[in-house]
Write a structure and sequence with these properties.
- With about 600 residues, the protein is of the alpha/beta class.
- The chain has 3 domains: about 350 residues, no CATH class; about 35 residues, no CATH class; about 160 residues, Glucose Oxidase, domain 1 (3-Layer(bba) Sandwich).
- It is built from 23 helices and 16 strands.
- α5 links the parallel β1 and β2.
- α5 packs across α12, α8 runs parallel beside α15 and α9 packs antiparallel against α10.
- The protein is globular and about 75 Å long.
- The two termini are about 40 Å apart.
- Its cofactor is [4Fe-4S] cluster.
Length: about 600
């Protein structure tokens, strides 16, 4: 193992010793009681299989066959999840072939940040993760199940499914992806049209045509944002079948992988002699493997929040310093949009996750001594699935990347580090991703232009008020203020300013997105403005220094004067009602800091 990765892992193990042991003790106690349907009364059990066929009822009356819970985020508005409509029938058939049963245990919400970006619904996005976790727990609470299949892909959905399932961590669990849509309009062209629209040089019809050619069919959006980061991280953790992440939906190979996932989770179940559950597989080393994979690929900054929450659900405590120290030593091995111009289909064609895993294992960047859904160790994950006639087989990953400008080797990476930095200073603590930021923009010092509402930035841009060197401060965007929406809507405007030759940066207590790009952005800054953070005392014209090289975020104002300033107030009432936002007030009030996962689950005693 690389010594720094080993050091960070040992630090996490020591930090988490008490909480991890408490978690494992609880899971072991629950495991000893399973199968739980054996404890159900006759009335309970009759309710649990009332809608089943007679054959399934006969199977479920006995405890020596598995009952698989399907928890799905299917809806047919969300392109990534629309393929899941057909998965339950495939899963039931595969379970019957193993002499077992599969029941659709429950559905979870699945909102699309692409639809809600810049809209009021985005203010529910972050909290949908914990809502999904609770929905998953409700689905599994019937005590009818011996194993779990999780059907979900996108931003908050996979973290929510994992958090919820970890409360049932004694059950073996496999995540079942659906895959990305085929490639559409090239990303460079999409980006060009967006910036032309921001400048008023093309109209809405042209923009909609470009967007429709980009997002055009069932499947995950093909850029390397949070959804596809989810898939890669989960595979590196050994919670998918090997090579399953980026196989397109609606293909024979995709269906074969779904059947195989069903068969494998049944083999892992207690009635079939299995001993390990999800909580055994999600341990400190697999969490570190996920962080390494995130950093090596320049993945979504949202996972500086979500994977902290996932780890905490398994009793593991990680923080941003862990990310930053790992980032300082892992190589940058991919160039996938927005960190390059090609998409995840190109990454998969180049060798994909199996090639990446083999390179990282050989370089000592991943822990191999981990439990996965296909056995001990990650070597199996250096194989790519394919069909040999009707038979699903796995073959070793390609020896060399088939697309070197998209996927490099560990020995000849695109950059020597992962491009994620922690920022600390008198404006607070946050993170910045510089994978797609040119070196000359890693340090920006410029006067502040302050907004309390992201929508005000467009008006200032249109009026020419931002045509100068500036650091845009968008505050009152944290979890407690308005649910911490992504501010991806700002990207085209800031990108235009940078292209005009101005030095420009963003500082916010909100999120940017999995598609953070070429403009330096200090995000997730806390304490947030509503919670007494220094951002509430920043004024227009204050000089701010955003320095990703030194890891600092500071304001060039006399310390005594700055401390004495009265904090700005913002009327946030308009963000707390309408579009269901009034139902989430208790989540806003209870949210922890981003570095604690921005969750309410662990902010209070249970």
């Amino acid at each position: 193992m690389h010594p720094t990765i080993d050091k960070v892992t040992q630090r996490i193990i020591e930090r988490s010793r008490a909480t991890r042991q408490d978690y494992l003790d609880r899971m072991n106690a629950l495991k000893a009681q399973s199968p739980h349907r054996s404890s159900l009364s006759c009335g309970n059990l009759a309710h649990g299989f009332a809608a089943c066929s007679q054959a399934d009822k006969d199977t479920l009356k006995f405890m020596n066959k598995a009952n698989v819970a399907m928890v799905s985020a299917y809806n047919d508005m969300l392109s990534a999840h629309q393929p899941y409509e057909k998965f339950p029938d495939i899963i039931r058939e595969a379970a019957h072939g193993m002499g077992s049963v599969a029941q659709f245990a429950g559905g979870t919400p699945a909102m699309c940040d692409g639809v809600t970006q810049g809209q009021p619904g985005m203010e529910l996005s972050l909290f949908s993760r914990d809502t999904i976790a609770m929905s998953t727990a409700v689905a599994l609470s019937h005590n009818m199940f011996d194993a779990t299949l999780l059907l979900g892909i996108c931003d908050k959905i996979v973290p929510g499914l994992l958090i919820g399932s970890l409360s049932f961590g004694y059950l073996p669990t496999v995540l079942v992806p659906a895959g990305p849509m085929p490639s559409g309009l090239p990303n460079k062209e999409k980006q060009r049209i967006r910036q032309l629209y921001a400048e008023g040089k093309v109209g809405k019809d042209e923009l909609l045509e470009a967007e429709s050619k980009s997002y055009h069919s069932p499947g995950t959006c093909t850029f390397y944002g949070t959804a596809n980061s989810n898939q890669l991280l989960v595979e590196v953790m050994g919670l998918h079948l090997p090579g399953a992440a980026f196989v397109n939906p609606g293909t024979p190979l995709r269906d074969a992988l779904t059947r195989a996932a069903t068969e494998q989770v049944i083999r892992l179940s207690k009635p079939h002699g299995g001993e390990l559950g999800l909580g055994d597989m999600v341990d400190e080393k697999s969490i570190v493997n996920a962080l390494v994979a995130l950093l090596v690929t320049g993945g979504s900054t949202n996972h500086t929040i979500h994977w902290i929450a996932i780890a905490r659900a398994a009793g593991i405590i990680i923080d941003w310093n862990d990310y930053a120290e790992l980032s300082s030593v892992v190589p940058s091995m991919t160039r996938i949009y927005p960190n390059g111009q090609e998409d995840v289909n190109a990454f998969h064609e180049a060798g994909g996750t199996p090639y990446l895993i083999r390179e990282l294992l050989n370089g000592g960047y991943l822990h191999n001594d981990v439990e996965t859904v296909v056995g001990h160790g990650l070597e199996r994950y250096a194989q790519m699935p394919e069909l040999d006639g009707d038979k699903l087989v796995w073959k070793p990953a390609v020896e060399k990347s088939q697309w070197p400008e998209v996927l490099s080797s560990a020995s000849e990476p695109f950059a020597p580090n992962g491009g994620l930095k922690v920022l600390d200073g008198n404006l607070g603590r946050g993170v910045i991703k510089v994978s797609a930021v040119a070196p000359e923009h890693h340090r920006i010092e410029a006067p502040a232009v302050v907004f309390n509402d992201q929508n005000d930035l467009k008006a200032a841009f249109d009026a020419g008020e931002l045509d100068r060197d500036c650091i845009v401060v968008v505050r009152f965007q944290g979890p407690k203020a308005n649910g911490m929406p992504e501010l991806h809507k700002l990207t085209p405007y800031l990108g235009v300013l940078q292209d005009r030759g101005y030095k420009v940066g963003l500082v916010t207590d909100g999120r940017m997105s999995g598609a953070s790009g070429k403009v330096p952005a200090a995000i997730h800054v806390y304490p947030e403005a509503l919670d007494g953070g220094a951002l509430a005392r920043v004024r227009d014209g204050d000089v701010i220094c955003l320095d990703a090289e030194q890891g600092s975020l500071s304001i060039r104002v006399d310390e005594q004067e700055f401390s004495a300033r009265e904090s700005a107030k913002a009327d946030l009432s308009a963000y707390h009602y309408g579009y269901g936002r009034e139902l989430f007030g208790w989540l806003r009030r209870s949210a922890s800091t981003p570095e604690e996962g921005a969750s309410f689950f662990w902010n209070h005693d249970a």
